[in-house]
Amino acid sequence: MILSVMQQRFIWPSLLACVLATGCGGGGSDSNTATAPVTTPVTTPVVTTPVTTPAVSVAVDLGSTVISGVVSTGAPVMGGILRVIDATGLEVRLLDAHGAEYPSGQSVTRTSVADGSYRITLASPKQFLPLMLQVSGVDAAGVPLLLHSVLASSKLPLVANVTPLTEAVLAQILGANPRDIWAAAPAKADLIKQLGTSTILTAASDLIKTVTKSSLADGKISNTLTLDFFGDSSFLANKTGLDLALEGLRVQIVKTPAGLDQLQLSNKFAPYAAPEVKIDLITATTELKKNHRRQSGQRYRVNA
Fold this sequence. Notes:
- This protein is 22% helix and 24% strand.
- By secondary structure, the protein is an alpha+beta fold.
- The strands form six sheets. A four-stranded antiparallel β-sheet has the order 8-6-11-12.
- A hairpin with a 4-residue loop joins strand 1 and strand 2.
- It is globular, with a radius of gyration of 24 Å.
- The N and C termini lie far apart (57 Å).
């Protein structure tokens, strides 16, 4: 069960709120009298302008061409179709079971029909991180699903699990439904790059851990500090731990009456009612970026 105190609305933790301010110097003026002109030195205003460093994608040698993981909703997603794009929004080319590269537009693999696990082989170890993954398939009840995750680090082994909670974390960072970002990936590359920012990824994960604390406790997860939704190589779809917690969670992204994307979490087994947690995604991504700037330090350029 999700935290009852969060029922029907969500308040962003104060630790993610910060204010960045810029200052500017004063100006000067001229004055005249009826008898003689008086000249006052003019002070050139000093303007401080935030320095924005554009995100640049650099190919990273991953040290391996194999990425693995498990796709689960509390039950394994079997036979799901998995695709990968890089930080530029372009398709990541994969190898088939015979070691041949798939033709362009056909680089896909399927999750195991036994346990929802997958293993993909990249055509090259050099990739533009982060890599965003998408899995399409059906859940245990036969309902179509579309889930997303991210490989943000080159730390070996390369693991990217895919669950409704990875979907929830990505939605906060992207500020929108991940499927919509994926559909326009090349044009949304700047957003996709944010998935590779460790402070943002950690803050978004921590928030989801907080609002799902009761459900995680049901899975006997008492220490969430070491819980990794994405890169845990020991994660299995076996009704224990995180997988057991997932079994009782409903995670969905809906449009509000104003047409904005909203993340909603609730107890899957409770009678139908209003979601227990609601997170407006535009607000979430704005606060995450503010927190990141505060932690990393805002740099300024002085214009004289």
